[in-house]
Amino acid sequence: xxxxxxxxxxxxxxxxGKSYDLPILKGTSGAEVIDIRTLNKQTGKFTFDPGFTxxxxxxxxxxxxxxAEGDLRYRGYPIEQLAEKSTFLETSYLLMHGELPNxxxxxxxxxxxxxxxxxxxxxESFFYGFRRDAHPMAMMVGTVGALSAFYHDDxxxxxxxxxxxxxxxxxxxxxxxxxxxxxxxIGQPAVHPQNDLSYSENFLNMCFSVPAEKYAxxxxxxxxxDKIFIxxxxxxxxxxxxxxxxxGSSGANPYACIASGIACLWGPSHGGANEACLKMLNEIGTVxxxxxxxxxxxxxxxxxxxxxxxxxxxxxxxxxxxVMEKTCHAVLKELNIKNPVLDVAMALEDIALNDPYFVEKxxxxxxxxxxxxxxxxxxxxxxxxxxxxxLARTVGWISQWNEMLEDPNQRIGRPRQLFTGAAARDYxxxxxx
Length: 433
Ligand code: SDX
Known about the structure:
Shape: globular
Radius of gyration: 23 Å
Helix content: 40-55%
Strand order of the largest sheet: 1-2-3
Structural class: mainly alpha
Strand content: 5-15%
Order of helices and strands: EEEHEEEHHHHHHHHHHHHHHHHH
Largest sheet: 3 strands, antiparallel
Number of helices: 18
Bound molecules: s-citryldethia Coenzyme A
């Protein structure tokens, strides 16, 4: 990656009467940053920013979010246009290489990914080590983290060709691993990839076909699945992407880095929110119970939060939520499903968006608010929702990991702290405590 920021000015801080200059850096879009790389050397002090609410951890050219406007762009292209006009593999190429592929580039990329869809045969016996009732995310974290035990020719991160091979293997095998985890959890045999199917058709076939019967993928459902993957593909420096970058900054192998991202995504405040949101909507059950849950969400003494609502960056509607809602209606119509939970979700959204608490705190539906309803309609159990999020986000993690390794300014990530623990003291023998 070629660094492209410029200096737009200088910030000055004064400590004990002494002034220090810090460059202000400007990118192509979004907030400028104060470059504090020399702060500790100049002042002996650190900045303090738990949760990184005011901290840019890196320069990046992949995904841009304008949270105030509810604007999300992959390599400059609005998410709405990509969801409507692109495919997940074309968007994956865009995220990885920075430009939309031409016809021959897309065919070559598609053929490359397709050629890596199968798993090493011994991964099959690895799976049998899990309990059948293991959470599919546990199987994902475990299996992806273990892939470096099965693939040894793509672990040298200094070699671009090996990084490419690992990147292609991960994008290609995540659907196979996700489907394998699902089949294993319901006691059905694995369905192997079919390389004559598209990426999303192949995934749906591996999840929902059985050896005993013919299965035809519904093209409208495959299109919805592909859109959902596009919506989840990348999202700037979120918690799981930052985890992948931090793991990668130590030189860890690609499978270990992506496994760390899957582990972080699992949390209910992050990628686990889609599973938690559907559980919440089912718990609410009927529209007349919504006020009770809204009151709980506003009660500072109640840890309950409206899952699928709020976002660290979006202080406006998450653009992915709008596309997800449209997709949700299309899938329910195609499958002729009347899901009362959708009525609850739409009523909840309407009530919350007119409630002063949510308006004042700028809490809007995020990508996870409708996704659970549509994934449930597609036939997935709630335990698979975050697995699908991880499947799609793998290309974003891969793209950010590669960008980090190519960044001339990147070093091993090693934050400092504000220490408030015990001052220095000598050991006291047990007889004297
Ligand atoms: C994802 O970062 C990304 O990009 C993530 C993601 C991606 O694509 O990678 O977009 C995916 O993780 C989407 C978010 C999914 N999570 C949820 O839906 C869980 C519910 N939402 C929250 O827990 C919360 O909104 C977060 C975690 C998403 C954001 O938390 P922040 O930015 O730390 O905000 P906060 O917790 O400081 O909240 C600010 C205020 C607080 O009230 P006060 O302390 O100021 O009085 O808003 C309140 C919060 O109590 N608040 C909520 C709320 N979310 C925030 N109150 C009720 N319900 C909510 N959902």
